[in-house]
Amino acid sequence: MSHLDRVQAWIDADPDPATRRELQTLDSDSIAERFSDTLHFGTAGLRGPVRAGPMGMNVAVVTKATAGVGQWLIDHGHHGAAVVVGRDARHGSEQFFHATTEVLAAQGFDVVSLPDPGPTPLVAFAVRDLGAAAGIQITASHNPPADNGYKVYLDGGAQLVPPADDEIEQLIGHTDDASSIARNPVDSDCRADANTERYLARLGSRFGTRRSDLKVALTAMHGVGGELAVEALRRAGFTNVVVVPEQQHPDPDFPTATFPNPEEPGAADLLLDLADDIDADLTIALDPDADRCAVGALVEGSWRMLTGDETGALLGAGILASRNTVAGTASSPLVASTIVSGSLLSKIAAAAGARHATTLTGFKWLVRAGEGLVYAYEEAIGHCVDPDAVRDKDGISAAVALCVLADDLARAGRTLAGRLDELFELHGVHTTGQYSLRVDDLDRIAQIMRSLRHDPPSELTGVVVAMKDFRLNPPAQSTDAVQFTGTTDTGTIRVIARPSGTEPKLKFYLEVTESPGQPLGDAHVAAQRRLAQLTDEVSALTNAGHR
């Protein structure tokens, strides 16, 4: 089939008149780009710009993807099983949701439809709670407004892992044209409201209820988590929650946040302004689908959003110290973080007599870290504080856990910042940072990674470094990443380079540690100085790798 025939065949088979018209108005260069490849189905499902053609998120692509997922479930003995489907409020989400539920219904599945825009953790929870065979959430999480996505849960509510992603992609490639794939209407489902209530009840059993005077400033970042977060906190006893009004309700255009990611510089400015205005005790920022959570604290009199690693250390230490964990089923509880996360949690776990596991990036690996898992986090403000209920990152439950921790500290006259300093006194200052290179041409990322492997730096910040190539690990632990580590006179440095799995970025994860026993102020200054130098040198490496 010629290129023009393939384009015309796609247009003829597109079930959405709007995207058919869109393709018919494009010039030849745009058509060539739209049909240069397809969105690839990976362990994160699908993610891409909302637009017509096989390189975009649209009804045709979602219809074919769902037919492939459904066939995979049938092939693995799940015909007729329950499948949970939810959505966020992004452009296209409602259309994609209906395409997904209706294709699954036509394939004979018991579709548990969550029709209102809602947080991703509700789908992960429902899969596990209902014993469903799978879950699908229509979301692009914290991506820019133009994007949408399709996230799949299997295996008791965890994200899928290889080889399931490759098997599903193969099946998608062999599906019928989108217009030929059967769709059956799906009625409203009483299990949707029950799911939200059961999720909130689980939070109550996990964290209890108290009466707290803590004043919390919260933003939903124009996403779908604001209402549920406020209700979850209210039921936990945190009734003094003030939201950023401009960002509380879903808005697919994200008018106050071009990059609706709490980690992005400036994204939390409205939240921190509100915290100042109301004299808050802490701030909570959810990302748009509420699976991630960032916390802000007063540090030396000024508001600062804590890093994911700082928050991970605080939550990990708090969970390991809680009586619920000590009295739980795991005599030696397990906490987990990823290869790109900071190393402080491992030291906290060792001091607490707990186990620590390091996994590849992503919660698909973290929640499979081992038996007795009580907490897992990744540096990108993702936290799993109740693995028995939600086997993925969950910003709502993390927000409750952080407020409980802050309230416990406040009752003892302490603060989150003070607790961090206590951990640094015990285990040494751990300072982490990132450097990201966003590209238009993915070949540039491949070129830089080749340069790092074949012509690695021998020194960074004047320290001799050793390289580790994670591609040389055994298959189950292999990934496209390289690590450089070195020992300074007073601590360590570490750099990990890894292409992003969801965006056209090359990411560098940096860590500088200073050994315990030094004056804390001096250690902080030394770590920050070396981190700044390390960032500059990493930036220079990306330019060298592109020459």
From TrEMBL:
GO terms for molecular function: magnesium ion binding; phosphopentomutase activity. Its cofactor is Mg(2+). It comes from the Bacteria. InterPro entries: A-D-PHexomutase_a/b/a-I, A-D-PHexomutase_a/b/a-I/II/III, A-D-PHexomutase_a/b/a-II, A-D-PHexomutase_a/b/a-III, A-D-PHexomutase_C_sf, A-D-PHexomutase_CS, Alpha-D-phosphohexomutase_SF. One of its GO terms (biological process) is carbohydrate metabolic process. Keywords: Isomerase, Magnesium, Metal-binding, Phosphoprotein. It holds the Pfam family PGM_PMM_II. SUPFAM superfamilies: Phosphoglucomutase, C-terminal domain, Phosphoglucomutase, first 3 domains. The keyword Isomerase applies. Residues 40-176, 198-295, 308-424 form the Alpha-D-phosphohexomutase alpha/beta/alpha domain. Belongs to the phosphohexose mutase family. This is Phosphomannomutase. It comes from Williamsia marianensis.
